[in-house]
Every structure is written in structure tokens, then in C-alpha cells.
Amino acid sequence: MTTTDTERAHGPIDFLLLEFPSADRQSEAADAMFELVDNGTVRLLDLVVVRKFADGGVEVLDLDTLAGEVSFTRFSGARSGLLGPEDIAQASEAIEHGSLAALIVFENSWAAPFVAAVRRGGGDVIASMRIPAADVMDALDALESTESE
Hints:
31% helix
């Protein structure tokens, strides 16, 4: 059987850089990510955890050896190759000193059937853009304040 482009449709791929003030503060986020992966909403492609020390030094944590120190250890081995050393270095520059960060690349797998349907209809996704959540919340707040006047 031959695989066509419509059968290999993927949802949008996103990158997140999450920063936490310490290792003991990220368990709820790790649990939420696990739930998204477990129910098929997203497919985790890459997950790297980085610690930035007070002196600015950076350490990429080996999730295989942390056993409970970092809640993201359950995602050990999530490495597709999309997230490379340059990406990790660039993300590390954005992290506050003394913080822990998770770099996550994931597919919005919920969208794959929709993309496949578009392709079966002869269409294609030609543009995609992420609107930052803060911008959406600001716009909704502004709309709400004008409606209440």
C-alpha cells in the first residue's frame, strides 16, 4: 500500500519555552502535558530541561538520571531531532538566572484529521500563525470594558 500526502497529514508544530523559579514548581505543568499527550491532543516531539545557575552557567539535564527531581522525567527520550543545540543555546539566553526551563516541541495532533480533509479536497494549509495568549487576553479585556460602558 502506498502512503499519500493526505494520509501523512500533520497538525501544526509548536515550540514552547517554559520557565520555572525552581525544580519543585513544575509538577503541575508536567502533569498537564502528560494528560494532553495521553489523550492524543498533542504528540510530544522534543522535550529538553535546562537549568540556568545564578552565575549564568547552563546545564542540560539528563532526564534519564533525575528520578523524581524534575517532573518532566516521564518524557525522557522525547527527542525527534527538531530541537537542536542551537535552539537550546538560544532558549538558554532567555532564561532567568537561577531558573529551570522546559523546551517543548509538540504537534497539535488534534488538527491532523482536519488537515487531511483539506488536502483530500485539493486544498493546502498555506499560512499559520500563533497569536500570543497575552494578546488575546488583552483584546478580550478591552472588548469587555467597551461593552460595559
